[in-house]
Amino acid sequence: MQIEIQLDESCIEPKVILRAAQLTDEVKELAQRLTVGTAWLAGFCGEQAVLLAPSELLRVTAQNGKVWAITLQGSYTLRMRLYEAEEKLHSPDFVRISHAEIINLKQVKNFDLSFSGTICVTLSNGQKTYVARRYVTRIKQTLGI
User: 63, 69, 72: which is closest to 45 by C-alpha?
Assistant: First the structure.
């Protein structure tokens, strides 16, 4: 893929043109990523709603029938299903590590591969979580291991 940036002082709004021989899955995904804006999530703490930027999120997890957004500032309930949060956070920074959890790769301190069959993930706040066995291969491909 070639990327070309042209600066034009008369340009009022940025314009992106995708030029390809065919409409491939890669072109469709690239167009989708460009059209999706910042995926702010509305987190709730009691009756108070807080806008959460994706960069603030450590992880999003489903527990006891609720979906939780975990940040350094605290935990917030989300009024959506986990798959809806995953679609909204569609970014290479977020990866599903189990049926009930998505993590922000930019908030990972390290991956411990010494456990047999799974991977222990330490987040930037010191919390530990584990990659489910069925997701280990996907995580290793994402990380290039």
Answer: 69
